[in-house]
Design a protein that fits this description.
14 strands; 7-stranded mixed beta sheet; 4 helices; 207 residues; 30% strand; globular; alpha+beta
């Protein structure tokens, strides 16, 4: 478990001012500054390759990709997160009150799962991210097998779920006009076994 920085509450402005000059990144949760754990080499390789392939497809489009150091503000949850990848397809809106740009209106967010973050990514972060009206797509990429999960917001508060498995699978992301070939995302990852390739649509109801 990652320890908090200090046992005191910070205002968002205090947090952002500290973050602007900090050596290591931290996230913000209701006044608490939470240092982020370092990422594995597999995480970094997946992040770079996914961002590169999406970025190449987005050239000349109205969408813009941000990776690694772009924060996202979730006002309803009073949190600041660092998603692995964020794409915005509207005019980007930033909370730049300290000179440190914070994205306010992502269209798509990608998180790369790890043992230490998976539960948070699947639950707390998704619950908060979906309060952003701009967000239409949430993507979770596994490090341990060739598997990408895609949640897309439908009408009446329902999130449709699709999972792409196997290195020959392709995940379509129509909201941003892109696709992800799992062979590209995992081109530098070695897996002990290769699971069968399937796609499974489901639904997720907002409570």
């Amino acid at each position: 478990m990652i320890a908090t920085l200090e046992k005191r509450c910070y205002t968002p402005l205090e947090y952002l001012e500290r973050e602007r000059s900090a050596e290591f990144r931290s996230e913000y949760d209701h006044g608490v500054i939470i240092p982020m754990a370092g990422a594995s080499k597999e995480h970094n390789r997946i992040n770079v390759d996914a961002a590169r392939h999406l970025g190449n497809q987005l050239q000349g489009s109205s969408c813009e990709l941000f990776s690694l150091d772009m924060q996202v503000r979730v006002p309803e949850c009073d949190k600041y997160y660092y998603p692995d990848i964020a794409v915005v397809c509207e005019e980007p809106k930033f909370e730049g009150i300290t000179g440190l740009d914070v994205l306010m209106n992502p269209t798509l967010i990608i998180e790369i799962l790890s043992k230490s973050t998976e539960l948070k990514d699947r639950n707390e972060k998704f619950d908060c991210y979906e309060t952003l009206d701009s967000l239409t797509d949430y993507v979770l990429i596994s490090q341990t097998e060739p598997r990408i999960e895609h949640f897309s917001r439908q009408k009446q508060g329902i999130w449709q779920f699709m999972v792409a498995r196997g290195l020959t699978a392709i995940l379509e992301l129509p909201a941003i006009g892109c696709s992800l070939r799992l062979a590209d995302v995992y081109s530098r990852i070695i897996f002990p076994t290769a699971p069968p390739e399937t796609s499974e649509p489901e639904g997720r109801n907002e409570s």
